[in-house]
Structure formats: structure tokens, C-alpha cells
Amino acid sequence: MEEFMHIKSIIAIILGLSLTHLIKGSVNFIQHPGRKKFSLLHFLWVVYIFLLIIHFWWWEFNLKLIIQWNFADYLFIITYIMLYYLLCAILYPDDLKDYKGYEDYFFSRKNWFFSVLALCFTADIVDTFLKGNNYFLATTPEYFPRIIAHILLCIMAVLIKNKTFHYVLAVVFILYEISFIFRFFNIES
Q: What is the pTM of this model?
């Protein structure tokens, strides 16, 4: 149990930094309106990643199911969590001097963003397996289709440049995540 408390602390630090990065980037629009060109598409992905991190943090409570930790498991969890921070850092760069605004920036970095997001969904399978056979087998029938669909949609997003596709994808991801959270939020193993 002591290992879980240590890992829980590391999770809190990295995910806390991730949320801080998102919040700080978003607050800049309030602090300095007009300084950086707002993009609804960019903002939709910020909202989605915020939901995803909060949801992820909630479900990582199930790491308590891991009875014996080893360094490989620990390294995997830390690496997995760092992917979320990377998504936040991609969404809010240090400066936008070379871009017309956040939408221009987003499309210039969409391949990175969706590749890392696809890695997050892939890592989720390993994370679920680490929590034990009982947890892995108890996943809802929706789990694997959800993960596979998200990975495939991320690959499509890398390949497709159409703005309408990206707006629709962002809204679909947000609505699905909200639906998923409300349908499974209070289920504990």
C-alpha cells in the first residue's frame, strides 16, 4: 500500500501540472484579450483534454488494485501520465510568434497532438491490464471498441486537414467523454 501512496503522489504532481498548464493558457485570454487570436477549435480540444485528464485521474484510483509494484509498472505509469502533460504543452506553446493564432498553430501541430492522443488511448489498454485480470476482464463491452475507435479517429485526424472534420471530431469526442463519465462515473470495483 505504501507504493500506491508514492505513485499516487507522482500522479497528482504530473496531472496537477497538466491542469495548471491548461488553466494558465486559458486564463491568458481573460488577462490579455486580443493579444492572441482565439480559436474555437483549439478551445474545444482544451475542453476535451481537461475532461480526459479529470476522468483519467478519477479512474487511476483503481491503481490500488495492483498488489505488487515493480519498476517497469512504475515507469510505465509515469510515462503514461507524462503523455497528458505533453498534450497540454502542445495545446499551449510558450509563444505564438510564428503563427497567425491558435487555429493556425493547432493545424501546424495537429499531427503531434493526435499522435500523442492515440498513444494515450493505446497506453490505456496496458494501464487497464496492470490493474489485474479481474479488472481487465470486468471492463465494459464498450471499452475495447471505444479505445479502437478513438485510436482510428486520431489516425484519421492526422491525415485529414478539413476544418469541418476537426470541429465535428472535437465535439464528438467531448460529447462522448461526457456521456462516458456520466454513465460510469460512480462505478467502483
A: 0.89
